Amino acid sequence: MTTMTTLRQFRFLVAVADTLNFTRAAELCHVTQPTLSAGLKELEGQLGVSLAERSKRRVMLTPVGEELARRARVVLTEVTDMEAVARAQSGIGQGDLRLGVIPTVGPFLVPRVMPMLRATWPELRLFLREELTEQLLEGLAEGRLDLVIIALPHDIGNIETELLFEDGYQLATPVGHGLAGRADLTGALLTGASLLLLEKGHCLQRHALEAFADLRSPPGDAFAATSLPTLLSMVEEGLGITLLPQLAIDAGIARGHSIDLTPLPQACPRRVVLGWRPTSPHAARFHRIAELLRAASASLKA
Predict the structure, then answer these.
(1) Please, what are the domains in the chain?
(2) Whole-Å CA distances, 132 to 211, 270, 293
C-alpha cells in the first residue's frame, strides 16, 4: 500500500528550507527534532529523492529539495486560504491580520489608521511587519503575510491591488540653498546638486529617480541612507538635497528640522497600493481596509 504525502511533511520541508537547521525547524513546527527528521526521511522515501544533505556543521537542500520546498510553500498557502474560507462561512471571526508595509509608508500611515481599524473591528489583532518590497511580496506569496502596503511602479506579479493614493514629493534643501523655493526645478538641476537618496533595495530610491525624466542617479560613491530621517539629518547638515514623499511631510517628518521644503507639482508621484493574494477569501474586508487607509492619509493633510 502506497503512503500518501502529507501537508505535515510539506511543513517540515519548508521549515528546513527556511532555517537550514533541524533544531530550529522542529521548533517552528512544534515537534521534536527526531519527529521532524523521521518525517523528512519518510517524505524522501515516498518521493524517491534526496531532499537535504545534512552534516555536523550544516544543512543544505538539494536542487530538487529547493524546488519542492518552493512548490510546497504554494500548496500550504492555498490550504491556508481554503481554511480561511471555511472559517468565514462557519461564522468563526477572523481576529488576526498580518500586514506588511514598506518603511517609507509604515511609520507615517499605520499609526493614523490603527484607531480606525480598532473601531471597525474591535476583535482584530494586527501583526505588523516592516520590510522592503521584495520581502513583502515573498511573504505574501508564501502565506506569511495576508496584506501588504507597497508603492508602484514595481513588478508585483499577479497579486490583487487597490490604489490608496498618489504620493508626490517636495525638495528638501539646507536653509538658503540656491534651489529652495524655485518653481522651475528640473531633474538636471537636481542631479548637479549633491542629490542624496535611500540605499538600493528601497523602492523609493528608484521612484525618486523616476520623478523627473531628466533626473540622473548620483555617482556610485554618493551617500545612500537607510531611512528618511537619516536623509533629513544629512540635508540639515548641508551635505546635499533630497526628495521627500508628501506622505512623510504630512505626517510631520520635517517638523523641528532646519531645512527648506519646495513643492514639486511637476514630479511624477509614486502610487501607494494595498495588495493581497487573488485566492484570499477576505477581499471584501481588504477593500474596507483600503477605504480606512485612504481616510487616514487624508486626515494627515488636515
Answers:
(1) 7-87 (1.10.10.10), 93-166+270-301 (3.40.190.10), 169-263 (3.40.190.10)
(2) 20, 15, 19
How far does CA 108 lie from the centroid of its chain?
15
Whole-number pLDDT of residue 220: 62
The SS3 call for residue 1 is: coil
| Alpha-carbon span 191 to 212, nearest angstrom | 10
Q: Whats the size of the chain, residue-wise? A: 302
Q: 202, 289 in Cβ contact below 8 A?
A: no
Q: Rounded to two decimals, what is the model's pTM?
A: 0.73
Are 251 and 299 a contacting pair, CB within 8 Å?
no
**DSSP letter, residue 195:** B
User: What pLDDT is stored for residue 91 in this prediction?
Assistant: 41
Residue 123 CB partners (closer than 8 Å, separation 6+): 93, 95
SS3 148: strand
Task: Report the distance separating Cα 229 and Cα 214, nearest Å.
Answer: 26
Residue 122 CB neighbours (<10 A): 8
Which residues, listed in sequence order, are joined to residue 54 by a DSSP beta bridge? 59
Cell numbers standing for residue 300: 494627515
> Cα dihedral sign for 64, 65, 69, 75?
positive
- Check residue 141 and give its pLDDT: 86
Q: What is the pLDDT of residues 129-184, one digit of tens each?
A: 999 999 999 899 888 899 999 999 999 988 999 999 999 999 999 999 999 999 99
Q: Where do we find the cell 477581499? A: 283
Residue 15, φ and ψ in degrees, nearest 5: -65, -40
Pairing between strand 147-152 and 270-276?
A: antiparallel
Report the distance separating Cα 109 and Cα 120, nearest Å.
17
Q: Is the peptide bond before 107 cis (omega within 30 degrees of 0)?
A: no
